[in-house]
Design a protein that fits this description.
364 residues; alpha/beta; Four Helix Bundle (Hemerythrin (Met), subunit A); Rossmann fold; four-stranded mixed beta sheet; 12 helices; globular
Length: 364
């Protein structure tokens, strides 16, 4: 995608082959800054502290983190320790473990002297494949928007509601939920996005709105609790969200608040789609509602908020009374029964165990 007309990805390998640069997403939308990462420990911090976020991007950055370790010490023990460290950075997104396991399988098939190059090549492959996957997700979801546009009486944009950030900032490029939006906009379709603010970290207001603005896509930021009202009154044509893990039965885990949007969509007759790279599918987990581990983050993310003052200074302020406790579950799980379809790089798939297993068997 482009920022100020210049192509940019949130992750890029440094030319010396020893590290990567990432966009520090904590500073957006007010400041764009790339930060170098040169070790597995630095990658751990970047993931844990949400310099980088989004399941596909976390996986790709972690793969490079393991490759950095292989440059320093490619012994069995050093690689195993680095993989364990990185897997512990965040517990919910399955792409993290998926990418690390993939790199480990490759490097352990080589002697110690060849492991560093093999690990780096595999990290490159994971990153480039992510771009291809997200473009394909958008291509398969685009007809959903085109069908709505074709039925539209008297013109007007296709209104899409999304939650959190499943855009190119959460991936290596394109995004998952935003990919069909960008492709529709590029094709000249009138499209408008309702952007949930997504408390408590405001990834929608800070990240999704920023990248949609950079692409020139019309959008409106709304309070999280406004989505149901808009659906009730026919102002949303479809919802599309990303995901951090999908269980074998089709239950989909995404940023906290997604489940409530799915309930409102079902009650209002609005289609609810989940953009799911197959790397996010966890066939080893039978039930998502009761089985997916939900990360509990610091209550400070809820009690405090950061922003820019009129003078341009970035400040943090407290919202709650002193002494009030705050609970901060970072994700929730939308049951498969509320999902119209999962949009994968191979096409639309029902959120149902048999269909998902068949898809993966056919692609094995």
């Amino acid at each position: 995608m482009k920022v100020n007309g210049v192509a940019l990805r949130p992750l890029r390998a440094l030319p010396d082959g020893l590290g990567v640069e990432v966009i520090d997403q904590r500073l957006l939308p007010h400041r764009l800054q790339m930060r170098p990462l040169g070790s597995a420990r630095e990658v751990f911090v970047a993931i844990r502290e949400m310099w980088v976020r989004g399941a596909p991007l976390i996986g790709a950055v972690a793969a490079y983190g393991l490759a950095m370790q292989a440059r320093r010490d490619a012994s069995d023990g050093a690689l195993a320790n680095a993989a364990a460290l990185l897997k512990g950075a965040r517990p919910t997104a399955v792409n993290l473990a998926w990418a690390l396991d993939r790199v480990m399988r490759v490097v352990m098939a080589h002697g110690v002297g060849r492991r560093a190059d093999a690990a780096w090549a595999e990290a490159d492959a994971i990153a480039e494949r992510d771009v291809q996957v997200n473009e394909a997700i958008g291509r398969h979801a685009l007809p959903l928007l085109q069908a709505i546009a074709a039925r539209r009486q008297g013109g007007g944009p296709v209104n899409v509601l999304t939650h959190c950030n499943a855009g190119w900032l959460a991936t290596v490029d394109w995004g998952t939920a935003t990919s069909p939006i960008y492709q529709a906009h590029a094709a000249g379709m009138a499209v408008h996005v309702w952007v949930d603010e997504t408390r408590p970290r405001n990834q929608g207001a800070s990240l999704t709105a920023w990248e949609l603005g950079q692409a020139g896509v019309p959008h409106t930021v709304i309070a999280d609790n406004a989505g149901g009202h808009l659906m009730q009154h026919g102002r949303v044509d479809l919802c599309i969200v990303g995901c951090d893990r999908v269980a074998a039965n089709g239950d989909a885990c995404n940023k906290i608040g997604t489940y409530l949007k799915a309930l409102a969509a079902r009650d209002s007759g609005v289609p609810f789609y989940v953009a799911m790279p197959t790397s996010t599918l966890d066939l080893g987990l039978a039930d998502g509602v009761h089985g997916i581990p939900i990360e509990e983050r610091s209550g400070r993310e809820l009690t405090h908020v950061s922003g820019r003052t009129a003078s341009g200074e970035m400040v943090e302020v407290q919202l709650t009374p002193d002494g009030s406790a705050a609970a901060n579950p970072a994700f929730d799980v939308t049951p498969a029964r509320l999902i119209t379809a999962l949009v994968t790089e191979y096409g639309l798939v029902p959120a149902e165990a048999g269909a998902l297993r068949q898809l993966m068997e056919e692609r094995a």
